[in-house]
């Protein structure tokens, strides 16, 4: 039965005899035969070559990487090698076999000598089990069989699913907390003093929001908007932001423990990737010399400059989105539709968010090309080093693509636009956007909600539909014609391998980055759930619901729609752990900034404890925020408008209001402005230091490696040293 199992299948077009491609193919297959591979050829519309490695290759591997204890007991015994290891070794040899023309398989595939290479999905019980118990929608809430996934797809994939499962499990807690904060916000929807004041301010006339056509407007017109803002922007949000900073740390610490337990059970805790790689190189070619480590400062500098240039481009795109919103607002306010005129700002923000989503989709493809090009410049030594370099670059690019627009809305919007009579303008023409009188946090909320919902719904649907449709189409195109059997003619028996090879060939191809893409998607989502969570407490809930489907979606894709992945050995999630830790620190900074700068939390607190009626001491039973809105608006004399921006319908000389802390005579900043500025800075420093201290304490409190794992290694060392001594010491007389 073992002789019928083929490790790999190579697929090639049928080339003319004597053509260059056919000669190259023959040379490559001859090299494999020299190494002792068995090759079987099946002809259909394409040529299929099944290859099976000789047993001696695996014996060499087992001998080189055996456990030091096992060689003492019994040097001859060799257990069966697992299928995943078998596929991995064969893949390595195929990729590194050199033809007499000094070509390897990847370059032959570029020249279309071979079209595809893949290991086969076997009809083994592990696969049937995974299909029934894992890759099905009905198992949404069941635990994943990580051990079985490892037996079929190798350690790297198993660790991805273990991590994703653990992340989703802990997201449940964060989602619950976020939901509680959000519901609490809804219950105080109408009761907040600030929104009451805005709703009652029917005689506060505000400065126009744009130049020519915009009228003066009443503060009370924006009553609903103010209520929505105070639903998000309240004390609960501040506590929730603190909670999420701690949650991110605890999640990573608990994951480290989980990972240590899992890889110890697999006997991989002290596994050395370099040794594994050198062993494979030597099995493939005894004369192989290891590639040395190199580092060139010149090359690093060039790459750094190029990375910075790319980041500048991404920030430029964010600027373009800002300009779009400014111009869109100007156009919407001049539109003939009343709805557009009234909701100009919100419409501009919403269309801007959709546009941002589209730039994310396009730039993701561009970023990947650029990151790959930079990796080629860097000439990394090994595949895993290349993967790490690529990960850091693409994550940096993706981060700026996803977040630069959000960073602008959170920290710059409405803070750099000047004041009436002296606005900052784009090209001297269009005014920059302003914040709403009740704060900018709702804009951030809308932007986050739209991007997260679009990312999760559209991206997930595409991620499943495209492979599914591709698979159905390939299946339809390659359906074999039924041959009619003429009576009396003996039909040749069809090769049993043929059907299996063809059905595997019809599946969607997988590449080195298939798993990488899943990781990247999850890590970007993790950034969304932690970095600006103060503005969008529902982020963890959306992420949680998305991940429940994501796990099964990936499972179904891997089991039913794609060819088998080449298993990779690993004992952790690689450089992603450092990326997640970096996001954890960014989350503390980001949330601190959102509360200190974007939210109205600090100005309100300063007012409450310094300028409010409560501080006068004689007023009892008054809400301490009474008069806050009036306090936060400055007065403007209409005669000071710029000449070309004279709005109509204005009795000259009357005072109008705008949101800022400025003096009425010369429009310089008031004392309150500097007071609030100092309070914002003080809060930011305090929040970040407290949150980082709590993170450090949490990291210290939860040990990375469980005691059981440490004890197991202790016992192993002890028993192996004892055995060594038995060999040396003669039995005492």
From TrEMBL:
Key word Transport present in the record?
A: no
Q: Which domain of life is it from?
A: Eukaryota
Q: Which residues form the Anoctamin transmembrane domain?
A: 149-712
- List keywords of the entry alphabetically: Cell membrane, Glycoprotein, Membrane, Transmembrane, Transmembrane helix
How does the record classify its membrane topology? Multi-pass membrane protein
Q: Which residues form the Anoctamin dimerisation domain?
A: 79-146
- Example GO molecular function term? chloride channel activity
**Subcellular location(s) per record:** Cell membrane; Membrane
| GO cellular component, as recorded | plasma membrane
**Membrane-spanning intervals of the chain:** 157-186, 235-255, 302-327, 347-364, 390-413, 523-549, 570-597, 677-702
Q: Which family does it belong to?
A: Belongs to the anoctamin family.
The protein depicted here goes by the name Anoctamin
The organism of origin for this protein = Lophotis ruficrista
Taxonomic classification: Eukaryota, Metazoa, Chordata, Craniata, Vertebrata
Q: Which gene carries the instructions for this protein?
A: Ano9
């Amino acid at each position: 039965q073992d002789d019928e199992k083929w490790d790999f299948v190579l697929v090639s077009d049928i080339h003319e005899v004597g053509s260059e491609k056919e000669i190259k193919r023959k040379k490559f297959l001859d090299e494999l035969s020299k190494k002792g591979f068995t090759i079987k050829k099946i002809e259909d519309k394409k040529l299929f070559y099944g290859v099976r490695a000789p047993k001696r290759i695996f014996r060499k591997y087992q001998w080189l990487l055996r456990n030091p204890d096992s060689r003492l007991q019994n040097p001859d015994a060799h257990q069966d090698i697992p299928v995943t290891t078998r596929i991995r070794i064969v893949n390595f040899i195929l990729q590194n076999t050199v033809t007499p023309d000094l070509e390897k398989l990847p370059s032959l595939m570029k020249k279309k000598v071979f079209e595809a290479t893949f290991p086969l999905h076997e009809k083994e019980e592990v696969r049937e089990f995974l299909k029934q118990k894992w890759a099905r929608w009905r198992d949404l809430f069941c635990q994943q069989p990580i051990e079985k996934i490892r037996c079929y797809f190798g350690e790297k994939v198993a660790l991805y699913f273990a991590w994703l499962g653990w992340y989703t499990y802990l997201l449940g807690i964060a989602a619950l907390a976020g939901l509680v904060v959000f519901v609490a916000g809804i219950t105080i929807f109408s009761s907040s003093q600030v929104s009451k004041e805005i709703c009652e301010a029917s005689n506060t006339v505000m400065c126009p929001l744009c130049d020519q056509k915009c009228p003066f407007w009443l503060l009370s017109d924006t009553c609903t908007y103010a209520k929505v803002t105070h639903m998000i922007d309240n004390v609960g949000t501040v506590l929730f932001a603190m909670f999420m900073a701690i949650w991110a740390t605890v999640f990573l610490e608990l994951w480290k423990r989980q990972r240590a337990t899992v890889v110890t059970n697999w006997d991989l805790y002290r596994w050395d990737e370099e040794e594994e790689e050198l062993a494979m190189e030597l099995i493939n070619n005894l004369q192989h010399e290891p590639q040395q480590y190199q580092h060139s400062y010149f090359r690093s500098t060039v790459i750094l400059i190029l990375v910075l240039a790319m980041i500048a481009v991404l920030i430029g795109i964010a600027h373009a989105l800002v300009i779009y919103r400014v111009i869109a607002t100007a156009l919407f306010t001049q539109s003939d539709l009343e709805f557009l005129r009234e909701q100009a700002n919100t419409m501009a923000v919403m269309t801007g968010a959709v546009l941002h989503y589209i730039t994310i989709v396009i730039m993701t493809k561009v970023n990947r090309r650029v990151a790959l090009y930079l990796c080629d410049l860097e000439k990394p030594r090994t595949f895993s080093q290349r993967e790490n370099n690529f990960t850091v670059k693409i994550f940096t690019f993706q981060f700026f693509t996803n977040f630069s627009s959000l960073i602008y809305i959170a920290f710059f919007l409405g803070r750099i636009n000047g004041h009436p009579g002296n606005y900052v303008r784009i090209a001297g023409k269009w005014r920059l956007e302003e914040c709403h009188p009740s704060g900018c946090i709702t804009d951030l909320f809308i932007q986050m909600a739209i991007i997260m919902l679009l990312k999760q719904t559209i991206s997930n649907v595409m991620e499943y539909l495209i492979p599914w449709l591709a698979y159905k189409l390939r299946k339809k195109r390659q359906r074999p014609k039924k041959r009619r059997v003429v009576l009396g003619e003996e039909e040749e028996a069809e090769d049993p391998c043929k059907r299996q090879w063809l059905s595997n060939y019809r599946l969607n191809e997988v590449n080195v980055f298939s798993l990488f893409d899943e990781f990247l998607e999850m890590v970007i989502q993790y950034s969304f759930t932690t970095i600006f969570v103060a503005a969008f407490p529902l982020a963890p809930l959306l992420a949680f619901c998305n991940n429940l489907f994501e796990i099964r979606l990936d499972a179904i894709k891997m089991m039913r729609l794609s060819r088998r992945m080449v298993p990779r050995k690993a004992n952790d999630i690689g450089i992603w752990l450092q990326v997640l830790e970096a996001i954890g620190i960014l989350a503390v900074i980001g949330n601190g900034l959102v509360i200190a700068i974007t939210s109205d939390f600090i100005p309100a607190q300063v007012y409450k404890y310094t300028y409010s009626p409560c501080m006068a001491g004689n007023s009892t039973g008054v809400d301490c925020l009474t008069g806050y809105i009036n306090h936060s608006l400055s007065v403007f004399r209409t005669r000071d408008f710029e000449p070309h921006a004279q709005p109509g319908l204005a009795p000259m000389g009357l005072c109008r209001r705008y949101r800022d802390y400025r003096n009425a005579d010369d429009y310089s900043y008031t004392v309150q402005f500097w007071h609030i500025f100092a309070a914002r800075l003080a809060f930011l420093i305090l929040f970040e230091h407290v949150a980082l201290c709590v993170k450090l304490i949490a990291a210290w409190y939860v040990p990375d490696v469980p005691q059981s794992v440490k004890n197991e290694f202790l016992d192993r060392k002890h028993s192996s040293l004892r055995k060594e001594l038995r060999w040396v010491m003669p039995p005492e007389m």
